[in-house]
Amino acid sequence: QVQLVESGGGLVQAGGSLRLSCAASGSIGSIDTMLWYRQVSGKQREYVASINSDGTTGYPDSVKGRFTISRDIAKNTMYLQMDSLKPEDTAVYYCNTIWEAMRDRWGQGTQVTVSS
Predict the structure, then answer these.
(1) 111 sits in which H/E element
(2) 58, β-bridge pairs
(3) Which DSSP symbol is given to 84?
(4) What's the first-to-final CA gap in the chain, in angstroms?
(5) How confident is the model over 25-39, as a mean pLDDT?
(6) Is 44 within 8 Å of 38 (Cβ atoms)?
(7) Which residues are within 8 A (CB) of 87 and not within 5 positions of it... i.e. 6 or more apart?
(8) What is the mean pLDDT of the segment spanning 34-50?
(9) Phi and psi for 87 in degrees, rounded to 5?
C-alpha cells in the first residue's frame, strides 16, 4: 500500500506562492487518481485539485487559475503549485488517492498560512 507524506507548507503573505510536495513510498504510476485536499480546524476536508492517470486535471472554482497540480512518476512525487494565495487558503493541506480518501485514511498534512 502506498504511503504519502506532504511537505512544503509555511507562512506567506497574500499574493505570494508556495509549492507543496507529496512524496510516495512506492510507485504512483498505477494510481488512477490522486488529489489534494485542505482542512480548517472544525471544518470538513475540501477538495482543491485532482489528477488522473491520463494526466487530466481538475479544480474547484475557489482555486481554478491559481493552483496547479502535477506529478513526476519517476520521482514518485505529486506537487501542488499555489499562486496568488489568499487568506482564505489558510488550512492544513493533504494529498491522497481516491481509494484511501474513500476509506478516510489520511497523513499528517502540511500547514499553509496566508497573512493579509
Answers:
(1) strand 110-115
(2) 50
(3) S
(4) 40
(5) 90
(6) no
(7) 14, 114, 115, 116
(8) 96
(9) -55, -35
Amino acid (one-letter) located at 76 = N
CB 95 within 8 A of CB 107: yes
Nearest to 92 by CA among 4, 3, 15, 9: 9
Q: What mean pLDDT is predicted for residues 7-27?
A: 96
Residues whose CB falls within 8 Å of the CB of residue 116, separated by 6 or more in sequence, listed in order: 13, 14, 87
User: Greatest CA span in the chain, whole angstroms?
Assistant: 40
**3-state SS, one letter per residue, for 17-76:** CEEEEEEECCCCCCCCEEEEEEECCCCCCEEEEEEECCCCEECCCCCCCCEEEEEEHHHC
Distance in angstroms (rounded) separating the CA atoms of residues 111 and 10:
6
